[in-house]
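Good morning C.,

I know you're traveling, so I'll keep this short. The sequence:
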Amino acid sequence: MEEERKKESEFRIKIDRESDSYDDFVNQIKSSIEAKDQSSLKSMLDGAHPADVVTLFKDLEREEELYLFRLLSNEDQAYSLVKMEEETLESFLEELSVDEISKTLDHIETDETTYLLSYLPSAKRELVLANLSKTDSFEIRSQLGFREYSAGRLMSKDFATVTITDNVRKGIINVRKKAKEIEDIYQIYVTNEDGVLEGFIPLKDLFLTPINTKIAKITNFSVFAFHYDVDQEEVANTFKKYDLVSAAVTDDLGRIIGRITVDDVLEIVEEEASEDILLMAGVSEDERLSTPILQSVKRRIIWLNVNLLTAFVSSTVVAFFEDTISQIVVLATLMPIVAGLGGNAGTQSVTVVIRNIATGDLSFSNWWDAVRKEFTIGVLNGLALGTVTFSMIYLVKGNLTLGLVVGTAMFVNMIVASLVGSLVPIILKWMKIDPAIASSIFVTATTDVCGFFFFLGLATIFAKYLV
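The tokens, ready to paste straight into the viewer:
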């Protein structure tokens, strides 16, 4: 065991992209692949974790990746597939034969198998399923039937149960049999004779209890369970809130049909966070570094066009005050200050509100608290920034009225930014639209339009004091 850990540690040092030896190591791999020197390659990969091998793939050509992949054991192949980025996985699976894919699936749990098969074209997927045993094929088909991004799609069907009427001795026998098929057992789920979930027993409690004790006496009936159609984001929030390591998944009748473990939830948290960050910038959540250029352009151009439309609206407001700007040219240099600060303040409010929606801290029951708080922050920030803006412009330009106009416009726009920034995500959530998709675009457009309107409107009213 110590030797294996040492080899794994040494390999990770070799594939550290910041190290001076990384490029040399990759070149050695490439040379050995070109020479088809399998013994040399196996020696270089000795102790490598499948996830670390996938890291190497990023600097190899597809044919080189496949050659290296086929040198791995079926078990390591399975885990390397699971660790690949989605787009890499999809194209990689196209290159593998039905037989090669089928052999890897025996070494992973059903949730991971379902994940891999979801990236196959339907025809090839059917061929792979036909290669599996009838039991495995049936279970995976049924899991693929659950809604995407739901607990049913996320769960593993590998779990251990005992019947509430049994004693500990029988329960231990059942768990030992099941342990041969399950990678990790955190909890033993307790069911009645019909398979309906009753509670759970921590693994250590089962083995430390006298063997003639009834299961019912050591069962914890406060069990966490999710209906199979619950959204994966809700699952992740519940795991985080209650520090869960495992939770059951049940059907409409309350029968246990699977379990979700904390490692699955960690992946969800990363996916959801990445998705929200990308969507807030108007970028598809599927985009990766490996995404083809034209595909990236196609995905981004829609929201850029929306931005263009809102920019035309802002320019229309400015055009309405062309006469004022032509008379008082200094206004053109000050306009970006009001609009820019308003946009930044709106983005701050949007980010805070969306985060609280995502974590479950903000819902329709307490939405007014969020709006009221952001409004108060907008007023205070507006007073502070309005005062600073007034002082700086008065000192630089020596015009008291100009300072008051810009300072007042700043104050009003900060309030608008906070209100819109807090309300837009809530309204989108109410309309069942992901708040991360369009909030920032609408907020920025609103603060630009309002900022220009208030600033130039006030400047027009007090124009004779500004010349």
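Safe travels,
E.
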